[in-house]
Write a structure and sequence with these properties.
This protein is mainly α. The chain folds into two domains: 2-65, lambda repressor-like DNA-binding domains (434 Repressor (Amino-terminal Domain), Orthogonal Bundle), CATH 1.10.260; 85-233, no CATH class. 65% of the residues lie in helices and 0% in strands. The chain has helices spanning 2-18, 22-29, 33-40, 48-58, 62-65, 97-120, 123-147, 159-163, 166-189, 199-205, 210-229. α6 packs across α11 and α7 (123-147) runs antiparallel to α9. It starts with a helix and ends in a 7-residue tail after the last helix. The model has no long low-confidence stretch (mean pLDDT 84).
């Protein structure tokens, strides 16, 4: 079912990105709105003819639409081809010690997360986690870009849609997908499919990143608890 979930998500995201209603897209694709809704929600699987029409309509490759490639033209990107910031010598950013330290905390912690998900063996949860984190980075970078007065032509999501919270909504959907994927994994394989996640196991499995991961967990917990007792209750 995972490939179907990838297809359904891609189909829905492409339509929203194009800025057309489900009714309009269905008309252009030669099917009913109800059937398109079923495709976008993963209720039904389409035939090859529809996949071909959808690829032409959204101008993407079949591999991209089916979730088999990260690029729209279907070009495969190998893990070895991607730049790895964590492999930089000393992993240092110019001009700010704070930026360097926080970069290490986040990069190392994300590495731990994806390694654990990889060991659990759920492609859907890995994709959902990537979608969630990608949206968070997108959101922060776009706020930065807007503050700097840069042109928003760089971004596909319209300015009004961004301000209205569409990226935040995407994060919520991605989180829901993530939770659903983990739930399905437990149903299929049981909780024993997950690697041990106690402190000793994490320290043993991730000797280099372990400290960063613990620090991020601790810092986040402390910040949220402080906010619960102060800012979010109206205290100063």
């Amino acid at each position: 079912m995972e490939p179907n979930n990838d297809f359904a998500r891609s189909l829905s995201l492409l339509r929203r990105e194009k800025g057309v209603s489900q009714r309009s897209a269905a008309k252009e694709l030669g099917i009913s709105q109800a059937l398109l809704s079923h495709y976008e929600n993963g209720v039904r699987e389409p035939g090859l003819a529809f996949v071909r029409r959808a690829c032409d309509y959204y101008r993407v490759s079949a591999d991209f639409l089916l979730g088999r490639a990260l690029t729209r033209d279907g070009t495969t990107i190998g893990a070895e081809e991607l730049y790895d910031a964590s492999a930089e010598k000393d992993n240092v950013m110019r001009g700010s010690i704070a930026a360097t330290l926080n970069k290490k905390l986040v990069v190392n912690s994300v590495g731990v997360l994806f390694d654990l998900l990889g060991k659990a063996g759920s492609r859907a949860s890995i994709q959902a986690a990537s979608d969630y984190l990608s949206a968070a980075i997108y959101k922060l970078f776009r706020h930065l870009s807007r503050s700097a007065g840069a042109s928003e032509d760089f971004f596909a999501v319209k300015s009004g849609d961004f301000v209205a919270g569409c990226v935040t909504a995407d994060m919520l959907y991605s989180e829901a997908d993530y939770v659903d994927a983990l739930s399905e994994l437990v149903k299929e394989k049981g909780k024993e499919c997950f690697p041990p996640m106690n402190n000793d196991a994490l320290k043993n499995d991730f000797p280099q990143a372990h400290q960063s991961f613990l620090q991020l967990i601790h810092n986040t917990g402390e910040r949220i608890n402080f906010d619960l007792e102060n800012r979010w209750k109206g205290k100063k």
